[in-house]
Amino acid sequence: MRVKVNDRELELAPGTSVIDAVFAAGYDVPYFCSQAYMSPIGACRMCLARIGAPRKDRDGNWLVDDATGEPKVFFFPTMMATCTTVVMEGMVVDTLSKEVKDAQRGMVEFTLINHPLDCPVCDKGGACELQDRAYEYGTGRSRFVFDKRHQEKHHPLSELITLDRERCIHCKRCVRYFEEVPGDEVLDFIERGGHTYIGTLEEGLPSNFTGNITDICPVGALLDATSRFRGRNWEYDHTFTTSLDDASGSAIVIDARTGRIERIKSGINPEVNKSWIDDGIRFGHEYAGDPERLRRPLLRRGDAFEEASWDEAAAFISERLGGLSGKDVGIAIRADATLEEGVAARALAELIGTGQVDHAPRHGPSLVPVHGATLQDLATATAVIVLGDVTEELPALDLRIKDALKGVSPPPLFAHGVPIADLRLKERMPRARERLTVVAPYRVGLMQHAGRPVVVPVGGEAAWLQAMTDVANGTDPDEGALGMGRAEAQGLVRQWREASKAVMVVGGFVLASAKATDAAAALAKAVGASQLLVPPMANGRGLEITQVLPSHARYDYRGMLAGSAKALLLSGLDPARDPATAARLGACELLVVHDLFLTDTAKLAHVVLPGKSGYEKDGTTVSLEGRFLPVRAAPVDNGEAEDLTGVVKVLGEAFGKRLEGRSVRSARRVLRKELGFDPAELDRLGLLHDLPRRRSGVSVGPRQEATGAALRVPTMVRPEYLARNPRLRAALGDLALRLHPADAAGHDLHDGDEVRVPVDGAPWRLRIVLSEAVPRGVCLVPATPDAPVGRAHVALEQVVHERRALEVA
Amino acid sequence: MSTSRGHELPTVTPFFADKQDLLARILSRYPDYGRRSAVMPLLWEVQRAERHVSRARVDEIAEILGLHATEVKGVMSFYSTYHEHPVGAYHLQVCRTLSCSLAGADELAAFLEEELDLVNGETDAEGRFSLQFVECLGSCGTAPVLQVNDSYFERVSRSRCRALLDAMRRDALPAPTVERGGDNEVVRVEGADRSATGEAGEGDRA
Amino acid sequence: MTDAVTEAPKPITSRSDPRFEVTLYAHVGAPGSHTLAYYRAHGGYDAARKALGMTPAEVVDEVKASGLRGRGGAGFPTGVKWSFMPPVDGRQRFLVCNADESEPGSFKDRYLLEDDPHQLIEGMLIGGWAIQATLGVVYVRGEYHHAHERLRVALDEARAEGILGTGVLGSDFDFDLILHRGAGAYICGEETSLMNSFEGLRATPRLKPPFPAQAGVYGLPSTINNVESFCAAVHIVARGAAWHAAMGTDDSKGMKLYQVSGPVRRPGVYEMPMGARFRELIFDLAGGPSERAKAIIPGGSSTPMLPWSDATLDLPMDYGTMAKHNSMLGTGGVIVIPEQKCIVDAIYNLVRFYGHESCGKCTPCREGVATWLPKMYRKLLAGQGTRDDLAVMEDMVKNMRGTAFCPLADACAMPVQASFRHFRHEYEHLADTGTSRYPRRREWAE
Ligand SMILES: Cc1cc2nc3c(=O)[nH]c(=O)nc-3n(C[C@H](O)[C@H](O)[C@H](O)COP(=O)(O)O)c2cc1C
Ligand code: SF4
Ligand code: FES
């Protein structure tokens, strides 16, 4: 379509909105209500322009201007909102004439009459769309002489979000967001006309994705309550990086000021998280600024710790190690370490001469699927099979699945990014629920959107997958395991097979079992689905493909803890909750713990080294889809904290060696060779790079699959830090033990009780949540890095009541 | 982890508990995919029976229709005839829009404010009378109009208004008379001056 | 009649034309007129039977040929609208009746609903057949309780007699109606807001396109018409397009329900041929003004007023003429404004109305119509306005014109602009002196 914007002609695809045409032509037009990724609604009326188009006569010939011989342009009688108008062949758009400017000035004036103009005390000041647009397109003077609308100014929508109703300009972005993106309609306009305000009756905004509304609010009406009044926008140092909270590879922006992280906002990666992050990622950062963080190395002197220099600590370690056989040393790092840290761990193991090196948590099976899918595949799939509770496990998947249900393919990119107004998106678009099948051992949130929810018995995934595979292959299935009639199962299988694109998302419940994982792969193969396997932590896939793995299954993390290692270096791991493990750790000849806090495990250590949080590292991570993404350090005051490359540097020096992996740069030299590209050159979009499946021949699965009627379930928040994230904790409550009300009655448990209860022998303090979504006879407890998703044993008969919830009549 | 942070429902008997037939009848009016359409009829049922729609009823309707309470509230608050707080047994609504205003609606409104000692939007202490000024009721030809609950009383003159108030105070509100202007009451007036500048006659409306 | 070959008969444009016959309102007010028995006794449902004997396309063509234009205000040709429906493709199709009548000065639909509900049902049956919709929706404004009850009973009667339901009137066409009650919001009269309201959503207007024919009720193909439009269709089918087209002017055909309110001797609804003159309506039918008048609002409160003059009184009330005189025919709800009424106060009354009814979706209407403009009027009427304020008002109203999402803001802006056009002196007097030239007076009848 040829379109002329002011003096510039350009060729655009049919379906493009006029506002994108204006931007594509290099002109500007103000707007508030439009938001890339959400339906254009034309409510703010800011983006008005004069628009004309040629017309055809009855016979299909262009009506021609007699004077010029060119097709005659007919202008619409009124100004048009460019965000909701589609380009037409020969269209002429005027954004510069006095008429247009007058109209835009008028709209700015209307928008401002009830706005409090309290920019000096507003967190959005300096990064406010209204401020900018009023400055560029307004008159700078108000003719409104009356009292402005007075409304609530500090209304807590939840613990995490504060609403200033006076500042709201009714763009409806937030309301549309909840309906269109997560599909949790927990916010709406109340009243009408000049009295309209946004509000909720849903206490605490029950959704995993509430914080995004603070990013998209064009004014300071919706604010991140955790960062309120912490700084002005121009004071923040913005770090564009990748979240290490889960394996989604979500882009985030860390805003830090004077060495502290004040807030996290969503970054933009159109192929990964678009511009959305979950509340765990957004609000779960307070722990990084916790005053109890370790700032210097600690050395044990008798029963107490003393601060020491890194050199002293390194000297101590190298001396102790000198007295040990290298192969007795175990090195285990948490699975959200960067690739560079992984290289460092490998180099250290090599120096020491041990095959006992591993990352944890780690499921037995490989995280590299035979037929891998990308997140874009998922978002455009016509059949989606979800195994597990992705809304908690990897919430970004939840949103991409909802994209798939809307059936709108990713938009074309312009020089100015994704379209500002994608006219294919509509308000209240129907979602094709029948495309989605969700299988889990309890009723998970996503089942609400699924055409076919299937609740399987705990540990019953393998049998269900096997039975469905039998159906797909035309062999006799175990009908009891199907959970539905055979005909229905056949219908489902047919639907998956006939789908133009089928994607299977495999969560931790399945990956915890090698048998179930194989069964999932078999079903995927039988119906032609590609797979996304959900790593238990951010860089599980990366650490697997870069071989941060033991030389023998015996030497995996569990093996080390069970006694194969006499000396242990643990980075970010805290296995001491289990009393038996704690006893063994106490008996180690050398225990070095590298972590942020003096954890239970650190308390047993000989040396404690201060570590960096995922916000403070430079490096590379690999997401679940195999995307290599850059991790960048925000300027955080963390004392002498080092990541693993720093640890390896000083240890190497103590041994008189300059190890590969002693710095991010040196680790990257190694990676460049192994990967075939330079991770230093990754841009924000990252790089989808296929590496072969795990090369090591070692079988590294758990030797014995766990049993037990309880389940460790994934949580959106990082449970190990919940206590140090006070806002998030206030919003979401303490870690929960969820069970069916009928089961609770048998143990005298009430909703809200706080209890102490052994989970696999380790004591846990949990809050009782009664829920009909949990099947009878099952308990759900949170998974942690040291006790990952999977089956467990909860000794309900040993419950100790700590605090009784107030009984509500 | 559970992120559903439910609130405590006050223990009240559900409105539709003993009205399952009615509920089924209302729901059956709309196609399956249009279940949400029942939100207004359900609000009406509650409003009519309880003279307002309380928070508990909003929750109940949301539950029935599979919506969030917020959505029900968003809809309910959009309209001017669903009330959050109970209105009186006699909910007096005075139209003050132009045609009624030209027929004296502003004075009618002032009269009611005075007589009932209520201002717009108030309900008296006994819960007998509520006064609400509303916009055009579609009674312009038989103005001014006073709507009492669901009934229109039209061509309400001062004396008629007094009589109506007295009747309501005695709980003896008469049935509204059907008022029809125009074609139903045509009396052709012959020979009148029909020019724009001509003298207008005495008002003989009503 | 002998010269018919050479000379086409003169169109009927006056109610006093002997060929004119009251049709739509023939039974309104008659005792028992709302019952099926009465309706049947007066030829009820014969037209529907006739329509069912025609092909749907023939019915559409008949309505097209009749020249009927929508009576809800916008005046869009009804037959043309019906022909916009996409080809039948197995999806549910809806026919919607807009019975939300809320435009100040309009009250014609109410009496049709109360006294002749079967006429509407029959009209919708014909429309349903024409567009091949098997489901219809009647959206009645919440305040019309009596009308709602009458319709409810009429629908039950019709279902019981096989007039609605499966195989209506013995044909193999299925058709039923869903009666839905509003709850007090003028914007529900706007067709897409009405659909949102019906679906249980907040009643804000939707983006167009897609138009209702592509995606209306529940996103399915739908056609929406006004009550009077459907009733007219009954008689068009019964008597033929030519009969209908014989009434009216070039661009406006048929009979129309005009309404008169304000200080006239006999306000009310009068059925007249299109193109009849204000003079006939106001004097011959309504008995003339009961006091000296100064302006006429020709078609419901949103239509720009015309000064009271002989020239105005002689204008034919049709779409084209009103447009030519910078106004609109709208719903045909004429409001006479007496000389003794302060024009600023009268217009404020309407501004207040539109402000109250703004849905709040778009900025110019929420902030202009619902907030700023009424405040300016109150300031002026309180004697605190200035000439500068008048300039601000005019500029603000200009910014509201053609910039809002739906026509409601225009509906407010147009009468304001017209009042400035014709009665600027009253505004100026008020701004200059702080008092109205026409101070408030007693209007309420004893
Ligand atoms: C703000 C607004 C209010 C309206 N109110 C009504 C109304 O109350 N009744 C009505 O029939 N049409 C009303 N309309 C017109 C309808 O949108 C629509 O044009 C009409 O119902 C179509 O029917 P028709 O073609 O038979 O006239 C309104 C339009 C607008 C913009
Ligand atoms: S003009 Fe805007 S605010 Fe007013 S009713 Fe229409 S959409 Fe709503
Ligand atoms: S109307 Fe808001 S961006 Fe176009």
Architecture blueprint of SSEs:
The complex is a heterotrimer of chains A (809), B (206) and C (446).
Chain A lengths: L1 E4 L2 E4 L6 H7 L23 E7 L18 E3 L4 E2 L9 E4 L3 H16 L15 H9 L17 E2 L4 E3 L9 H8 L7 E3 L6 E3 L12 H5 L5 E3 L12 E6 L8 E7 L2 E7 L12 H5 L14 E4 L2 E4 L2 H13 L6 E6 L4 H14 L4 E4 L14 H5 L3 E5 L2 H4 L1 H12 L29 E5 L11 E4 L5 H13 L5 H4 L3 H13 L3 E5 L1 H4 L2 H14 L2 E4 L6 H6 L11 H8 L2 E5 L7 H8 L3 E6 L4 H4 L3 E4 L8 E4 L4 E5 L12 H11 L9 H12 L11 E2 L21 E4 L5 H4 L3 H7 L3 E4 L1 H6 L7 E6 L2 E9 L8 E4 L7 E3 L7 E4 L6
Parallel strand pairs in A: 1-6, 17-18, 17-24, 19-20, 19-22, 20-21, 22-23, 24-25, 25-26, 30-34, 31-33
Antiparallel strand pairs in A: 1-2, 3-4, 3-5, 3-6, 7-8, 8-11, 9-10, 12-13, 13-14, 15-16, 15-26, 27-28, 28-29, 30-35, 31-34, 32-33, 32-36
Helix pairs in contact in A: 7-21, 8-21, 8-22, 12-16
Chain B lengths: L19 H10 L9 H12 L4 H11 L3 H8 L13 E6 L2 H5 L2 H12 L12 E6 L11 E3 L2 E3 L4 H12 L37
Parallel strand pairs in B: 1-2
Antiparallel strand pairs in B: 1-3, 3-4
Chain C lengths: L35 H6 L4 H7 L3 H11 L11 H6 L10 E6 L8 H8 L1 H15 L3 E6 L4 H16 L15 E6 L9 H8 L23 E5 H13 L1 H5 L2 E2 L2 E2 L1 E7 L6 E6 L4 H8 L7 E5 L8 E2 L2 H4 L5 H6 L8 E6 L4 H15 L5 H19 L5 H14 L7 H26 L13
Parallel strand pairs in C: 1-2, 1-4, 2-3, 7-11
Antiparallel strand pairs in C: 5-6, 7-8, 9-10, 9-11
The complex binds flavin mononucleotide, iron/sulfur cluster and FE2/S2 (inorganic) cluster.
